[in-house]
Amino acid sequence: MSKSNLEWQQDSTQNQKPPLSLQNVYVNYGTRKGNVQAVRGVTLDLYAGESLALIGESGSGKTTLGLSIVRLLASTAKVEPGTIIYRRDQREVDVLKLSTSELRQFRWRDCAMVFQSALNAFNPVLRVWDQVLDTAQAHGWSDRTAVRERFLDLLKFVQLDPTRVINAYPHELSGGMRQRTLLAISLLLEPQILILDEPTTALDILTQRTIIGLLRRLKEEQHFTMIFISHDLAIAAELADRVATMYAGRIVEIGKTYDLFYQPRHPYTLGLIRAVPTVLGGFEELFSIPGSPPDLVNLPSGCKFHPRCSFATDKCKQQEPELEEVGERHFTACWHWQDVEKELELHPIRRGAAKHDALAQTTVEVR
Amino acid sequence: MVPIIELKNVSKFFGHGKERVTAVDSISLAVEPGEIVCLVGESGCGKSTTGRMAAGLLPVSAGQVLFDGKDIAQMNRDELQTYRRAVQIVHQDPYASLNPTQTIRDIITAPLLHHKKVKDRTHAEKRARELLEIVDLTPVHDFMDKYPHQLSGGQRQRVSVARALTVEPKFIVADEAVSMVDVSIRVSLLNMLSRLKNEFDVTFLFITHDLALAKYFAWQGRIVVMYLGRMVEEGPTPRLITDARHPYTQALLAAVPEADPELAQHKRQIELRGAEIPSLLHLPLGCTFHPRCPYIVEGQCDVHVPRLEAIREGGSVACPVRKDESIQLVV
After folding, report:
1. How many whole angstroms from its chain centre is CA B299?
2. Which residues of chain B does A234 touch, with a Cβ-Cβ cutoff of 8 Å?
3. Per-window interface: B 232-261 vs A, CB < 8 A
C-alpha cells in the first residue's frame, strides 16, 4: 500500500490546558418507568495527544457520556448540571451552551465521533463520495478538487483502494472497509478530538487487527487525541494511554493503562480483569463478578457496586465514595482500596508476556 | 470408543449453478464422548453450518453424520427420535430463541411433557425447578412466572440451557452461546457449562469466533480452526495455542486483541498479503488461504488442495509447507 502524505495540525502538547474538560456532568433519561440515571457526576480532563479508553459493561453510561460530548443524545435525555469545556487555539466554549448552528460546526470539525454500527452510519442510497462532499459543503468547504484530493489521501491512509471506495455504495463494502471509510470521513475536517464507540466490535479478528493498527498509527504518528468507548478490555490494553472504568454512570477508577491493568485499586476493575481471558497468556483461572449490573432507575444505596463486591462493608451501603488519589495520576472511588492492594499482594495479576514465556517453556519440556 | 458424533466428509452447498456457495467443504470430525471440541473461525467460515448439521437441524449436501456410529440419514423413526433428544443446541441470541409470550415455567415444562420425561404437570413443575437450580437461576420461585423480557441476557441464556437439559441430552452444540453476554457474567456461564459436562456427562461442541474464550473453555479439549468452509488445523488446545502451525491459525492468534497491555505490546504482527477475505462464490483454487498467505509456494499452494496431515506434537495441519515450522508469537 502506498503511504499517504497527510499532515495534521495537532497543537503542541506542552504547557497547554486540556482540550476537553468535563465538570460534574449528569445525564438523565426520562422514561415511563422513572428517571434513568445514566451518567452521574463525571469529571474528566482529556489531554492533547492522549488516548483515553472508557470501559465498562452495557448500561455503565460510557456511550451516553460519549454522545453527550458531541450533544447527540436522544431528546428524552437531560444533561444537567455540569459543564463540558472545549478548548482550541485560545478559544474556550461550553459545549452544552452552544447553539444549533455552532454545534454543527463543533461536531466533525472540532470533535468527530465514529459510531458503533458502521453500516447504519451511511446513507445507503448515496455513494461514498456524495456523502463526503455533502459533509464538506455543510462545513463551508466547497472546493471539490481539494476535498477529493484530501479524501483520496485519507483513504490511502486507512489502506483502502481509493478509486474503488470513493465511487462505491455502502453495501458494496465489507464491514471492515466500511469502518475504515468511516474513519477516513471522520478525519476529513481535521478534528482535534476523535471519539470512537466500539471501533472493533462485530468485526472479524483480522479486520479488528487492521483497525487497531490504523488507530495506533493515528496515535503514535499523528498524536491524535482520542476517546475509545468499549466493553472490550482488549481495546484499552492495545490502544489507550489512560483507562477509565465506569460503573452505574460514574468513573470509579482512572489511571495509566499499566497501573489499571496490573495495579487496579477498585474491586470492579479487578473483577473485570479477572473475568477476561487472554489468548497467548497461558491458562488462566477466571472469576466472574457475582450478581448483575444495577437497575439505573432504582440504584442501590451507597456505593453502587456494593451488592456485587466482596470487599463491601456497612459503610459501603451507606456512603458513596468519591474518587481519591491512590497513586501517580491514579484515582479510585472505593472505601477499601487498600484491601484491594493487599489482595493483589497475595494474588498478583501476572503479566501476560511473562506467563506466555513460562507456558512455552513447559510445552517444550513435555515433548 | 465409538464417537458420539462423527462427521464424515460432510459438505453443505447453498444455491445452484453459478450462485452455488460451498459453505462447508468436506469436513471430517469425530467427537468422543466427554470431549470438548471448539470450532473457531471468522464469520462465513462455516462453523455454525457445521454445528447445525451435527445437531441435525440442517441436512447435509454430501457426506454422513453418524450418531453413536449410526448414519442419521438411515435411521428409523425411533432411532431418529433418540438422536433428536440426545442432541441439543443453544443458540447465540437469547432474545430471539425464547418465546416472548411464554413464562419460564411454560418454556421449561413444555418439552418435559411433550417428550414424556415426566408423568404429569406436578412432576414437570418439580423437574423444572430442579433444572433452574442446576443453571443457577435461584431463588427458583423468583423466575418461574417471569417472561423472557424480564430477564437479563445472561439469565435468558441460562433458561436456554435449562430448556436444552429437559431432554437429558448427551451432546450440546453451543453456538456462540456466551457472545452476547456481558464480560463479568460470561465466565460464570462458561463455568456452569463445564460443570454440566462433568456432572451430567454432556459432550460439547462449542462454536465461537473468540479464540480467548475457546482457549479457556476447551483447555482440556481440542480446537478446530476453520477457514472458508474447510478445516485448516486441529489439535489439543495447549498445543494449538502455543505452537500453531497453519499460517492462518498463526495470523488469527497474532491478530486477536489482547486484554493485557504487556501481551499487546509484545505480540508479533503477521503481515498478510491480502486484507480482504475472498468471496465464497469465487473461492481461490488450491489452498483457499493462498492469496493472503505470507508463505505461499507458487505452483503448489495455488494448485493443490492441501490435506490435513498429522503432526508429532498433536493434531493435524492442512499446510504441507509450514506444518513442521514453529514460530514465536510473543517476542
Report:
1. 34
2. 256-259, 264
3. 238-239, 241-243, 251-261
Subunit contact B256:A351, Cβ cutoff 8 A: no
What is the residue-wise DSSP string for B58-112?
S--SEEEEEETTEEGGG--HHHHHHHHHHEEEE-S-TTTSS-TTS-HHHHHHHHH
Break chain B into its structural domains and give their ranges. Answer: 5-99+168-242, 244-331
Report the gap between the CA of B76 and the closest CA in chain A (Å).
41
In chain B, what residues touch A284 (CB-CB under 8 Å)? 216
**A28 and A41 housed in the same domain:** yes
Nearest to A275 among B186, B257, B277 (CB): B186
Q: Which residues of chain B have a CB within 8 Å of the CB of A58?
A: 182
Domain range enclosing A83: 16-110+191-367
For residue B64, the model assigns a pLDDT of 95
pLDDT of residue A54: 95
Is residue A140 included in any domain, yes or no?
yes
Is residue A14 scored above 60 in pLDDT? no
| pLDDT averaged over every residue in chain A | 87
Tell if the CB–CB gap between A280 and B258 is shorter than 8 Å.
Answer: yes
Q: Which parts of chain B have pLDDT scores under 50?
A: none
Residues above pLDDT 70, as percent of chain A = 91
Q: What is the pLDDT of residues A223-259, one digit of tens each?
A: 889 999 998 899 999 999 999 999 999 999 999 999 9
Residues near B246 by Cβ (< 8 Å), separated by ≥ 6? Answer: B225, B232, B233, B289, B317, B318, B319, B322, B323
Specify whether A214 is located in the same domain as A351.
Answer: yes
Last residue of a domain, one of A139, A163, A190: A190
B281 close contact with A: CB closer than 8 A: no
ipTM, two decimals? 0.85
In sequence order, which ranges of chain A are alpha helices (DSSP H)?
62-69, 100-109, 128-138, 144-157, 162-166, 175-186, 205-220, 233-239, 257-262, 267-275, 314-318, 337-346, 352-366
Contacts of B241 in chain A (CB under 8 A): 279-280
Of A288, A360, A363, the CB nearest to B184: A288
Which chain B residues are within 8 Å of A235, Cβ to Cβ? 257
Give the pLDDT of residue A364. 46
**Is A362 found in the same domain as A321?**
yes
pLDDT in tens, A288-339: 888 888 888 899 999 999 999 999 999 999 999 999 999 999 999 999 999 9
Do A94 and A201 share a structural domain? yes
Q: Report the CATH number of the B5-99+168-242 domain.
A: 3.40.50.300
Is residue A289 located within the same domain as residue A352?
Answer: yes
